Amino acid sequence: MIETRLLHYFLAVAREQNITKAAQTLFISQSTLSKQMMDLEKQLGTQLFIRGKRKVTLTEDGVFFRSRAREIMKLLENTETALHTDTKNLNGDIFIGCGETVAMDSIAGLMAEFHQQYPDVKFHTYSGDADAVIERIDKGLCDMGLLLGPVRQEKYDYLNLHQKDIYGLLMPADCRLAAQDTINIDQLKSLPMILADQTFYGHQDLDWFGEDALNVVATYNLIYNATFLVEHGIGYALCFDRLVNTNGRRLIFRPISPELSVGLYIVTKKYQVFSPAAREFYERLKESSRQARANSLSDPSAI
Q1: Are the CB atoms for 142 and 95 separated by under 8 Å?
Q2: Which of 54, 110, 135, 156 has the greatest number of CB atoms lying within 10 Å of its CB?
Q3: 3-state class of 86 per DSSP?
């Protein structure tokens, strides 16, 4: 089993790209560090470094190992912080993965209230598509994820936020469809479409569009770069309302009719063991969910 000390040494060398400089930052001798890295390569059975006269660079295996070493060290740091947290005076870190959704606005409001009560708690957000967020949850690098869907797999728990994101079409402001207040779903079938990658990974519902296949000319994982494809006339992007600020740009957003929408969920690993800070914040999310559900029952049009 690899000692965490060796991971720390390896990451220092990878960062400094020089054995001597890395040894200085670690306060050990150059010869000791050099031997430790050779022993690590022997233990792993692969070469991690290409050693030049003045610089060391990572091999392909070295790049892979650096990624894993960072994850391991971060997980150890998070665990140590959680174990030292005083539940009466919460501190530590909460890691949240987030898909692209305006629901992050309400989550940020809860975070602000929580931070006001527990100023020593730090929030860390990671933005990515569903697969990237799920991967970080699986590895223990995120306590929870804010996702659309939900991604129905038995190894996860899902907290329904009783909110929804509404689909629409992002288009050039000077196109003929911009004169319409809404875009009929059947009109999409005749357009060059730019869709999110996750549409094809089972996270969204292509059955909305019937048996006729859409003309997909491009895909995206986060909407920002797709906006430039739309501005340059490559296609029309199917995306969520309020994600793109069209002010000052040659873009306009129109909702789909009849409405296309998806629910929003907080996803966690089943039997997740939270740090005290993450557990308390998750309870706040549950309470917010209960309030949103009560509001939706009294006013069904709100959801």
Answers
A1: yes
A2: 156
A3: strand
Residues 6+ apart with CB under 8 A from 248: none
**Which residues does 191 contact at the CB level (< 8 Å), separation at least 6?**
169, 215, 235, 236
Please name each of the domains of the chain with its CATH number: 4-82 (1.10.10.10), 90-162+263-302 (3.40.190.10), 165-262 (3.40.190.10)
Residue that is written with structure tokens 């899902």 in the block: 158
Contact call for residues 97 and 145 (beta carbons, < 8 A): yes
Q: Find how far residue 278's CA is from the centre of its chain.
A: 17
Alpha-carbon span 249 to 246, nearest angstrom: 5
State the Cα–Cα distance between residues 266 and 249, nearest whole angstrom.
Answer: 33
Write out pLDDT tens, residues 107-157: 999 999 999 999 999 999 999 888 889 999 988 889 999 988 756 677 889
Q: What is the DSSP letter of 213?
A: P
- What is the distance of C-alpha 280 from the center of its chain? 21
CA–CA dist 215, 211 (Å, integer): 13
The pair of three-digit structure tokens given for residue 177, joined into one six-digit string:
């469809």
Cα distances (Å, whole numbers) of residue 191 to 67, 113, 166, 205, 229:
41, 44, 20, 18, 14
- 146-173 pLDDT, tens per residue? 988 756 677 889 999 999 899 999 999 9
Backbone angles phi, psi at 149, to 5 degrees: 140, -105
**Which three-class secondary structure state does DSSP give residue 64?**
helix
pLDDT, tens digit, 9 for 90 and up, residues 75-102: 887 777 666 655 567 888 999 999 888 8
Residue ranges with strand state E in the chain: 49-51, 56-58, 92-98, 121-127, 144-149, 156-172, 183-184, 192-196, 215-220, 236-240, 251-257, 261-269
Looking at residues 267-271, what average pLDDT do you find? Answer: 88
- The answer to whether the predicted template modeling score (pTM) of the entire model surpasses 0.90 is no
